[in-house]
Amino acid sequence: FPLFLQVTCNCFTISNGEMQDVGVGLYPSMSLLNHSCDPNCVIVFEGYQLLLRSVREIQIGEELTVSYIESLMPTSERQKQLMRQYCFECECPLCKNQEKDAEKLAGEEHAWKEVRDAVNEVRYPKSKEDWEQVLARCQNLLSSNMGRLPDTNIYQLKMLDCAMDACINLESWEEALYYGSRTLGPYRLYYPGFHPLRAVQLMRVGKLQYSQDLFPQALETLKQASIENCFFSAYNIMKVTHGTDHSLVQVLMEIKEQCEAIMRTQ
């Protein structure tokens, strides 16, 4: 039991190239990092290798922090999860100010609670029929809640992500792009600056645009954008969050170069 508790409190969720959970692992030195809901570092994986990357300028003597949990949750939910699993209350500025909580729970309460329950019920489908059922449920809820829930509502956003995943697995590329495009605004709101989740989402949408011969749009999504305006693109973010040698960055660069080559011949 003590060993189980040590694993629960100190393990890291190992994710694949698209930030999907594939397992857990113990990395003793990284377990020394403390938590912040607005961290200055992120953890990404290259296979089973853990990489710690800074996502903003860090001052001399400043503590390195990572987020132990999903920061997309509203403050009250983050605090509950941290207390339940790690036995502490977070006092970071994001929690003290309850920043963006209003946007995260915008819309009609009974509507987002219904969507929240539906999202929580989804288990990873294992067959085409399962994915079809998931997509039908998503389509029904997204349609019935049109005008009642903005896409910035975090449960609506999760539903859009779920619908996008279902369409990708069912090879409904055009519909997948529709749902994916709707997520980019909320992702920019909740993951400003450099964040691997936003980079991966931009990359997924860019790949969908590329697969449908929307080369100018795909290039705009994937290429490096203006830092001054904080409209970070997939490549620009991923250079920071993953590093130029990461396999995912290499894939992104290949798609970007293919887009540029095709556009030069048109």
Walk me through what this model shows:
This protein has 266 residues and is mainly alpha-helical. It has 3 domains: 1-98, Beta Complex (Beta-clip-like); 103-190, Alpha Horseshoe (Serine Threonine Protein Phosphatase 5, Tetratricopeptide repeat); 191-265, Serine Threonine Protein Phosphatase 5, Tetratricopeptide repeat (Alpha Horseshoe), CATH 1.25.40. It is built from 12 helices and 6 strands. The chain has helices spanning 2-10, 75-86, 93-97, 101-104, 109-121, 128-144, 154-169, 173-190, 196-211, 215-222, 234-241, 247-265; strands at 11-15, 21-26, 34-35, 41-46, 49-54, 65-66. The strands form 3 sheets. Strands 1-2 form a two-stranded antiparallel sheet. A two-stranded parallel sheet has the order 3-6. The chain is globular, with a radius of gyration of 19 Å. Residues 224-231 have low confidence and may be disordered.
Keywords:
6 strands; two-stranded parallel ribbon; mainly alpha; Serine Threonine Protein Phosphatase 5, Tetratricopeptide repeat; Beta-clip-like; two-stranded antiparallel ribbon; 266 residues; 12 helices
% residues in beta strands: 5-15%
Largest sheet: 2 strands, antiparallel
Count of DSSP helices? 12
Topology, number of strands: 6
Share in helix:
40-55%
**Class by SSE composition:** mainly alpha
Indicate the CATH class of the largest domain: Mainly Beta
What's the helix-strand series?
Answer: HEEEEEEHHHHHHHHHHH
Q: In the CATH hierarchy, what is the superfamily of the largest domain?
A: SET domain
Count structural domains.
Answer: 3
